[in-house]
Amino acid sequence: MAVTRRAVLKGALASGVGVVAGGGGYGFLYERHELEVTRTAVGVAGLPPALAGLRIGFITDVHRSRLVSHDDVAQAVSALTIERPDLVILGGDYVTWGDRQYVIPSAEALAPLSAPHGVFGVLGNHDDDHDMPAALGKCGVQMLKDARTRLTIRHETVDLVGIRFWTRRQIDIASLTRDAAPMTFLLAHDPRRLTEAAALGVPLVLSGHTHGGQVVLPLVGAPAAAKFPVVAGIGRRDKTIMFVSRGVGTIYVPVRINCPPEVALLTLQPA
Fold it and tell me: 152 burial class (0-12, 13-18, 19+ CB within 10 angstroms)?
């Protein structure tokens, strides 16, 4: 029997739908819960020798909600705690769409986090400006809302600058980095702030927001995250290096495909 072009196209379409449907089912039932610990060496320009080997634990995009459970968040906290980081950073989006019923549960799930040099957090675009930082503050997290704080680590000065998601203009970020220590880390939920950080000479940026694309398709990549300079992992511009985490939770659809959730342990090294 001759095989027509139309039959071939119909068969290909049916196969494609089957692959997507199958992947979506796996991504919903399994992959979105298959947390990974990403251990990455990060080469920081101008890093003092005393800070080589400093380990930063990074958790972002928890998105505690009806579809992201306490157990999902607790698993991430437990996995990072086992790594015993020197410093912990929380990258924002602790709930979804500012849902207040999950503000306190999200903060309580993150409360066990601790580190010798403290736990610090910034807000994402899903977080309100009052209830969420207040709840995290009660759990021992120092929230940086367009603010800078100074740490002394191994006799070296480190400044942490944390900005809100909506703080985008270089002039506004510059006001926070003015007279900062040479070793300044920018905590910015949105990785598009790499542009401003590089222009200001900030050595290190930690971001989330992208979820790593959440759905990463073969050959196509991560369509939902195409607008970002770094979708996941390490990126560099000039002398500024950035790490973007895939995060813990999900948004829009409770599915991850080829993009499992993660917590990150970043070990600083001289560039």
Answer: exposed
Instruction: Give the predicted TM-score (pTM) of the model.
Output: 0.90
Contact 64, 71 (CB under 8 A): no
**Which parts of the chain are beta strand (E)?**
36-44, 55-59, 87-90, 119-121, 142-143, 147-153, 156-163, 184-188, 204-207, 233-237, 240-244, 262-270
Euclidean distance between CA atoms 201 and 218, whole angstroms: 36
Q: Kindly report, residue by residue over 175-194, the tens digit of the pLDDT.
A: 999 999 999 999 999 999 99
Quote the tokens at residue 227.
């607008």
Cα-based torsion angle of the residue sequence 37, 43, 47, 49 in order, rounded to the nearest 10 degrees: 80
Q: Pairing between strand 204-207 and 184-188?
A: parallel
Residue 146 DSSP SS3: coil
Q: How far apart, in whole angstroms, are the C-alpha atoms of residue 251 and residue 158?
A: 33
The model's pLDDT over 113-164, given as tens digits with 9 standing for 90+, comes to 999 999 999 999 999 999 999 999 999 999 999 999 999 999 999 999 999 9
User: Burial, 170: exposed, middle or buried (Cβ in 10 Å; 0-12, 13-18, 19+)?
Assistant: middle
Instruction: Pull the structure tokens for residue 113.
Output: 């986090």
Taken in order of first residue, the domains within the chain and their CATH numbers are 5-270 (3.60.21.10)
Rounded CA gap, 257 and 36, in Å? 14
| Longest CA–CA separation in the chain, Å | 80
CB-based contacts of 255, cutoff 8 Å, min separation 6: 24, 27, 28, 31, 32, 214, 215
